[in-house]
Amino acid sequence: MVESIYRQIGGEVAMNAAVAGHLQDTLKERGVPESIAGEIMPTAASTKGDVRNQ
Known about the structure:
mainly alpha; globular
C-alpha cells in the first residue's frame, strides 16, 4: 500500500511538472514577455489543488 501511495504521488508530481512545462513553452512560443510569464507561472502552480479536486 505504501508503495502504491508513493507511485501515485510521484505520478502527480510528474503530471504537474509536465503541465507547467507545457504552459511555460506555450507562453514563450506566443511571445509573452518573461516578466509577465514570471507572474503567470506561480499563479498557475498555486491552483494545482483546485484543478485536481484536492
